[in-house]
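Re-run requested by the PI after the first attempt was lost when the workstation crashed. Everything re-entered from the original request form. Ligand of interest: zinc ion.
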Amino acid sequence: MKYQNFLLDWVMHGISVEELFSLLNEGKQSTPINGREYLFKNFPRLEVFQRDGCRCICCGLVGTKAILGGQAIGIYAIKNGKYIPITLDHIIPRSRGGPTSSENLQTMCKICNLIKGDRIMTVEKLRKKITR
Ligand SMILES: [Zn+2]
């Protein structure tokens, strides 16, 4: 019953990023929720989120919640009661041939990522843009 509550709570409100990381680090591949199997392996680039501490490299927003949606797990920061997705940014955009490798990825909140868009931009330049 405790486990059921845990799963329900996860779907509704998420679990902490620390809990997610410990599940993943234990090597858990999936977990059944409401008769559906949720695959952790779909989780994108765990090592990048861990390396960056789930912190937006630009504005410093920190993702604290891992929430299941569909088949994927998303990481969210909570700011003024709003859930802001923490995403991965391609330093050299995919459209310009940037690879999806850890070296070319950095943690960025959705807001900063949208501002950066398809450009190649240093973090300093991007910070200036968002504080204007
Ligand atoms: Zn940001």
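Saved to the shared folder this time. Residues 56, 58-59, 61, 108-109, 111-112 surround zinc ion (CB under 6 Å).
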